[in-house]
Design a protein that fits this description.
The chain is 45% helix and 14% strand. By secondary structure, it is of the alpha/beta class. The protein is elongated and about 95 Å long. The N and C termini lie far apart (67 Å).
Length: 498
């Protein structure tokens, strides 16, 4: 259909245009996408076998939908991508507030205009990007915001009595006729406001003060809610919940691989950062493991959840930590280090809700604990377990390193050290490079150095070396010697001791 040649109601009827509801529109376009093996929800990762099939079933059933899940589970992103299942353009009566279908007008304005102009009634075309409305439910949202109210200014300017339907100022939902309307955090909406949605969902009625109005509104409703909200901040009133036909449960990524894809897709990095900062896969894996460890931490409230935004922000912070060193050392490119992972602590502390025990420890200390557990969890994916080799001194590949530290040697890995200083510090530890050469198959010297550093962090997390946080880096020393100086170190570093 060449929409440029269709500008009046007569042109539209001559083109064999057939009116259809938005739910039918979504259904037909989804069927076509499935038949062509196309993905209209491109960018939603980790839901291929769970959420997406349920969502497709709901659309095929022409249901209103509620997406139920913890924060950071892509609920709003899914809702916004549904516009890809709409027709590219639809015709509306020109000047209509309610996106009136020229063939099936619902507003008094459109009906009067068609009555006056007949086949010459002007029409315009609405792109699918303009057919999406979204509202965050907050306690101050009113019926007038959502449904509408009488407008005294309109009454005065048009010289109309308040009994005239034309003085009504329509709210967001009537203005979303033939559109997708999303209400985020539905339980936060006051119960009396939720009640106002009953008739719209069931009977297409809207009630505005004393007016008796029946508008056959055609809206695809999508609601989102957090399960925590049902007990903490509010609830969805039962009659409203009963009118939402499909409830779909979302979840966090079930694998590190999916989580990494989400982070790389959503992280906002500059072209400079992408070019100058190299982040090896090990560190990407550590960043994702942090969120997995946080979700299982005894210090963090599981009902609140740990958003995917934590890993996205953490990844951005990691890159910026490396970029800062690059700028201060006046170099053109560098590789992230394991020590740089402590630069992500601000991204963790602001995105987790602590339980009582966590509050007692403090957000920063909890972040350090989560990072330590992440290093320990990932370490055995790359190197043999130090714990298992501990009792086999003749076969313990880590023994030369431990022997060197037991002689009183210590090292400091500083955040702002140059690449050459970093290399020289690591290479002076006997046996460290041979472990990496034997266990890691790579010819990249920078990756080898990263893995050498990772061995030290791993040994510390398995309690075979002692690791202390310095103001500008970390210090590694023998475990036994640190026991004798523990009181001194604790006085000096307090909660910063790992």
């Amino acid at each position: 259909m060449n929409i440029k040649s269709i500008s009046t109601l007569g042109d539209l009827l001559a083109s064999n245009y057939k009116s259809k509801s938005i739910k039918q529109e979504l259904r037909e376009n989804l069927i076509r996408s499935l038949q062509k093996k196309m993905n209209p929800l491109d960018g939603i990762i980790g839901y291929d076998e769970t959420v997406i099939p349920d969502l497709q079933t709901a659309i095929l059933s022409r249901h209103n939908i509620i997406l139920l899940g913890l924060r950071g589970q892509a609920k709003t992103k899914i809702a916004r991508l549904l516009i890809n299942l709409l027709d590219e353009y639809i015709p509306i009566v020109s000047g209509s507030e309610l996106n009136d279908d020229p063939v099936k007008p619902i507003s008094k304005f459109a009906k009067d205009l068609i009555a006056a102009n007949g086949m010459n009634t002007p029409i315009t075309w609405l792109h699918r990007s303009e057919r999406y409305s979204e509202k965050l439910a907050t306690p101050d949202v009113s019926v007038a915001d959502l449904i509408g109210d009488t407008d005294p200014i309109k009454a005065a300017s048009l010289k109309l009595p308040y009994a005239d339907e034309r003085v009504i100022h329509f709210g967001l939902i009537p203005r979303s006729h033939r559109c997708i309307f999303v209400m985020n955090e539905l339980p936060d909406l006051q119960a009396r406001i939720q009640v106002a949605l009953f008739n719209i969902l069931q009977e297409n009625d809207i009630q505005i003060r004393g007016f008796k109005i029946r508008l056959p509104l055609d809206v695809q409703f999508v609601f989102t809610a957090n399960p925590e909200d049902y007990t903490n901040r509010g609830s969805i009133v039962t009659p409203l919940k009963d009118r939402i036909e499909s409830q779909i449960l979302t979840h966090y990524p079930k694998s590190i691989a999916d989580s990494m894809k989400i982070t790389e897709q959503e992280a906002k990095l500059t072209a400079d950062q992408l070019q100058k900062v190299i982040v090896p896969d090990l560190l990407k894996e550590l960043i994702e493991q942090i969120s997995f460890e946080a979700r299982g931490s005894e210090y963090i409230d599981p009902k609140s959840g740990v958003s995917a935004r934590l890993t996205i922000s953490a990844y951005e912070n990691l890159v910026s930590t490396v970029e800062r060193r690059l700028i201060l050392n006046n170099i053109s490119q560098t590789v992230a280090r394991v020590t740089d992972i402590y630069g992500v602590i601000p991204a963790i502390t602001g995105k987790v809700e602590l339980v009582y025990e966590g509050e007692q420890e403090g957000a920063s200390k909890v972040a350090n604990i989560v990072i330590s557990k992440s290093i320990k969890s990932v370490f055995e994916n790359y190197f043999p377990s130090p714990e298992k080799l501990k009792k086999q001194s003749d076969r313990n590949i880590y023994q030369p390193i431990l022997n060197w530290f037991s002689k009183g040697n210590t090292i400091d890995l500083l955040l702002l050290s140059t690449d050459e200083e970093y290399m020289n510090t690591l290479r002076k530890i006997p046996g460290l490079d041979s472990i990496v050469n034997n266990e890691i198959k790579t010819e990249d010297e920078k990756i080898k150095l990263l893995m050498m550093e990772f061995v030290l962090h791993g040994l510390a997390e398995f309690s075979q070396l002692s690791k202390f946080k310095l103001e500008n880096g970390v210090n590694f020393k023998d475990m036994l010697s640190s026991i004798f100086t523990m009181n001194k170190e604790e006085d000096e570093f307090g909660d910063e001791r790992f």
